[in-house]
Design brief:
By secondary structure, the chain is an alpha/beta fold. The chain contains eleven helices and twelve strands. The strands form three sheets. The protein has an eight-stranded parallel β-sheet, covered by helices on one side. A two-stranded antiparallel sheet has the order 1-2. A two-stranded antiparallel ribbon has the order 6-7. β3, α1 and β4 form a beta-alpha-beta unit. The chain is globular and about 50 Å long. The two termini are 32 Å apart.
Length: 317
Amino acid sequence: MTFIGTSSLDVLPLSLGGNVFGWTADREGSFAILDAFHAGGGNFIDTADSYSAWVDGNSGGESETIIGEWLAARKPGNVVVATKVSQHPEFKGLSAKNVRAAAEASLKRLGVDTIDLYYAHFDDETVPLEETVAAFGELVTDGLVRYIAVSNYSADRIREWVGLAQAAGSALPVAIQPHYNLVHRNDIEEHIIPLAQEFDLSLVPYFSLAKGFLTGKYRTTDAAGQSSPRAGAASQYATAQGLEIIDALEGIGRAHGVSIAATALAWLRAQPTVAAPIASASRVEQVSDLLDGARVELTADEVETLSRVSEWTPAAV
């Protein structure tokens, strides 16, 4: 278990991504995935109010609704739920009014009194940052949110947020959610991790498995022709270096008796300030690999081998 930043949120060092709930996992499948994750010791669930508005027939909030129904049905103990604001079709942006309304809507869908961890999903430069910082702080003061965090913010904007919060005596962020994995490293390691170290913030990376590429499933550019919604996106990483990374993961994973995916998650966990990589499962049988990724401990030499083989991978868009 690990704490997120300076918070009291004590979690298994793996967050179950809820982006698939209501998308590639229906309600029954989502319940099975959540059951398996919790039974295996997982207690940290990540979602957003906009998941999964991109699916035909969905309007946003489907993932939160499924998670809320699961929480009501199972009444699991010690579960930490993180969600986000700024991208729901009805609650766009980070004005104070919108942040409050979106949080109240998320609370209703989740069926909880307090959101454990609330992220500003994407920066909104149309709104003064002072307004957004104050709005998040008020949610904590009023008991709607326990802790706040930021996602997809630049290092400069995170530093500005922290400074404004400190000056106002407002709630400080405890976590950053960046796009970070073995094939997308450069900007995070150069700019975000040093800032996280400076302010005692934890990283909770998304795309931890590079849209599925770091499962080893997509080893050729032929993935673009497969039927999976993520296959085409994953195929962009099937370069000579990308495939070398997969080979290294496979060899190291074999030594520990775990999968390529679990090994990739273990490497991410070993990076400075990383508390809990986010990974999703569309099928219940994928959950055990994710849980392995939360527990397997790579040696320093194994971490270094993976860092070396991925060192100059350009950050993909």
